[in-house]
């Protein structure tokens, strides 16, 4: 498990950072696509990002499995296997959530999904193992930065929102923090090169951000908000806030010698990992009215869809 003081454990015990959790997020039938009623624009940014996960996660899994035969370090191979198990769980949970969005009447989702699927097939087929590993490492470094940002700003972004969705997103990024080292270590072991690593990061970041923008644009169009001046101003303010906080965390990835081990695990993420590893009844559901607390507070009662 993660060290309680936020420090890295010994390299030989690194696989113990990861716990493969069987989560059971539920969403009430009354939930709309705006699961955060205070921030519908943020709801659709998250929804759009979620649409990519059932295609991104299998791509990452296939890429890492393709590299496995070239890894000579048995401990790293075990870490890779744990990483794959966590990513498979992310795939299943986001697929379930995306089906919930479809059930709420968003007609653009199937076309968006087809474009995302085709884009990952092109990237995988058109690239070498080294370039695909660079993309995977770039995404994971970006995900680590996004996870830090979401946790730091969790009350503003998720406060008083639907617990199931907030819990899904924050759970996903806590696990991104748990396995932050694996893609980097596999990339360095098989294809390590500074310029290739930075190129992979820029490719992954640009690709994901463009997919997400295309997604939230279509979803907000369906809401009738894309041409609404008040909504567009709210979206602009939100994006400025997000990138103001996120950009310094992304910039460090460009520095020669960057290693995700240099990034301390957020205390809130460590507390989440301890709480929801031990408390099966909580099943990862957060009390979103208490996200301002220093440690996560589990939802008092589970709701059913």
User: What are the low-pLDDT stretches, counting only 5+ consecutive residues below 50?
Assistant: 1-15
What Rg is obtained from the alpha carbons, in whole angstroms?
19 Å
The end-to-end span amounts to 32 Å
What fraction of the residues are assigned to beta strands by DSSP?
under 5%
Can you describe what's shown?
This protein has helices at residues 40-68, 74-103, 109-126, 129-152, 154-158, 163-178, 182-191, 194-223, 229-251, 267-278. By secondary structure, it is mostly helical. It starts with 39 loop residues before the first helix and ends in a 27-residue tail after the last helix.
Produce the secondary structure layout.
Layout: H1 40-68, H2 74-103, H3 109-126, H4 129-152, H5 154-158, H6 163-178, H7 182-191, H8 194-223, H9 229-251, H10 267-278
Annotation keywords:
305 residues; mainly alpha; 10 helices
How would you summarize this macromolecular structure in one to three sentences?
This protein is an all-alpha fold and 305 residues long. It has 10 helices and no strands. 43% of the residues are buried.
């Amino acid at each position: 498990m993660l060290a309680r003081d936020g420090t890295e454990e010994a390299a030989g015990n690194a696989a113990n950072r990861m716990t493969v959790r069987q989560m059971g997020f539920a969403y009430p039938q009354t939930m709309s696509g705006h699961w955060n009623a205070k921030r519908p624009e943020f709801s659709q940014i998250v929804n759009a990002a979620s649409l990519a996960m059932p295609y991104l996660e299998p791509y990452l899994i296939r890429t890492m499995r393709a590299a496995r035969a070239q890894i000579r370090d048995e401990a790293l191979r075990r870490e890779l296997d744990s990483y794959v198990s966590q990513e498979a769980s992310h795939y299943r949970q986001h697929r379930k959530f995306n089906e919930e969005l479809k059930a709420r009447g968003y007609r653009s989702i199937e076309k968006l999904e087809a474009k995302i699927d085709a884009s990952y097939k092109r990237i995988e087929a058109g690239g070498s193992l080294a370039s695909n590993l660079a993309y995977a490492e770039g995404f994971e470094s970006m995900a680590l930065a996004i996870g830090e940002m979401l946790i730091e700003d969790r009350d503003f972004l998720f406060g008083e929102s639907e617990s199931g969705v907030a819990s899904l997103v924050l759970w996903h990024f806590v696990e991104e923090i748990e396995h932050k080292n694996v893609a980097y270590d596999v990339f360095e072991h098989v294809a390590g090169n500074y310029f290739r690593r930075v190129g992979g990061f820029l490719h992954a970041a640009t690709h994901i951000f463009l997919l997400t923008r295309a997604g939230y644009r279509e979803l907000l169009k369906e809401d009738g908000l894309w041409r609404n001046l008040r909504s567009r101003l709210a979206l602009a303010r939100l994006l400025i806030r997000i990138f103001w906080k996120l950009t310094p965390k992304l910039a460090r990835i460009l520095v020669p010698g960057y290693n995700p081990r240099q990034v301390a695990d957020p205390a809130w993420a460590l507390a989440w990992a301890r709480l929801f590893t031990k408390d099966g009844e909580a099943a990862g559901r957060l009390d979103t009215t208490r996200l301002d607390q220093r440690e996560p507070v589990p939802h008092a009662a589970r709701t059913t869809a």
